[in-house]
Design brief:
The complex is a heterodimer of chains A (176) and B (158). Chain A is mainly alpha-helical. Chain A is 84% helix and 0% strand. In chain A, helix 2 runs antiparallel to helix 3, helix 5 packs parallel to helix 7 and helix 8 crosses helix 9. Chain B is built from eight helices and no strands. Classes of the chains: A mainly alpha (176), B mainly alpha (158).
């Protein structure tokens, strides 16, 4: 019972796909295929990320994280955030558990936001793909604008988020 | 390719960890499973929602909506569609390239690509679950502003 409650949205959406199938067979099959392709991608891509996050969680002491990405880590923290963001793979929701771990271990909020920005726009494999699909000029403009913009935005968001809200986020992150 | 690299790194790290400390490794796997399990219901629902919407919207429709003559309205549509949808890059970039070939304008494509990667309305519930409403809205809102700026710049120079 508990498990059905937990997955109630998923159950509802599967029922919707079945309803599609009844009214329009082709549409129902297509929706099921697309959904399965997405779920399959998620199930194959996400487990190693969680394993790595779990390992970092038990092996990296808080002091180390604070030293390299904490409030006083300066440019070092920004560069590390850039490197882990750009060397990554997968959709942005894969970055959330990593960001939560960084926050839990005491990384500076601005660097974590910057990491998410870089993950979303400047992942190395995707950049190559973007050049191939949309051209070098487009991609250079995209990255050239995104990186400085995300740096500015990260510090801006840090200023806008209250101490209380940040504490709430860090406490929540510790529970994951 | 990406998957192979990811699994190799995770597998190697797990092995090293296991050789160093069995107990700690077990604890890390427990944590990994716990956080995966916690997020699973939301992620599965989102994937189903994405599947349904991809089935309902086809490339021809998109091409009509953000094609060459679509102008400002096309940009607005592209910004909205990109913000809502969740399309993996190996689908979205070739789609964007095909749309360009089919006569779509660069600003529309820029709007679509930038919001697609940075703004995630569908994944917002998961983002709030990880952080909080305040932070998730700020991050998505600012990513949207950056996407608009990028669109304007592309419109001016390309």
């Amino acid at each position: 019972m508990e498990i059905i409650k937990e997955f109630k949205w998923a159950v509802g959406l599967i029922a919707a796909i079945l309803a599609f199938y009844i009214f329009n067979q082709e549409l129902g099959v297509k929706a099921a295929e697309m959904s399965w392709a997405n779920i399959y991608q998620m199930l194959t891509l996400v487990p190693p990320i969680f394993i790595l996050v779990g390992l970092l969680d038990v092996w990296v002491p808080k002091e180390t994280m604070v030293k390299y990405m904490g409030q006083e880590s300066g440019l070092k923290g920004l560069i590390i955030a850039f490197i882990i963001g750009t060397a990554s793979a997968g959709p942005l929701y894969g970055a959330f558990p990593i960001a939560a771990l960084l926050l839990k271990k005491g990384a500076r909020l601005a660097y974590v936001i910057f990491f998410l920005g870089i993950w979303s726009s400047t992942k190395l494999p995707i950049v190559m793909f973007e050049i191939a699909s949309l051209g070098l000029k487009f991609t250079v403009l995209h990255i050239g604008l995104s990186v400085p913009a995300f740096i500015l935005i990260s510090f801006l968001i840090e200023k806008l988020v209250s101490e209380q809200s940040l504490n709430e986020v860090r406490t929540k992150a510790a529970s994951f | 390719m990406t998957v192979t690299v990811l699994y190799s790194i995770a597998g190697f790290a797990l092995l090293v960890s296991f050789l160093k400390d069995k107990k700690k490794t077990k604890m890390s796997l427990k944590k990994a499973w716990g956080s995966f399990r916690k997020i699973l219901p939301a992620i599965i629902s989102i994937m189903l929602l994405v599947g349904i919407s991809l089935a309902l919207i086809n490339p021809q429709t998109i091409s009509k909506l953000i094609g060459a003559e679509s102008g400002i309205l096309g940009i607005v549509i592209a910004l909205t569609a990109g913000s809502i949808s969740l399309i993996p890059p190996f689908v979205s970039f070739p789609l964007a390239a095909a749309l360009l070939d089919g006569g779509a304008g660069y600003p529309q494509i820029a709007a679509f690509v930038a919001t697609l990667s940075g703004v995630g309305l569908l994944t917002l519930p998961v983002e709030i679950q990880y952080f909080n409403k305040n932070l998730a809205l700020l991050r998505n809102g600012t990513a949207f502003v950056i996407a608009v700026l990028f669109t304007i710049i592309i419109g001016m120079v390309m």
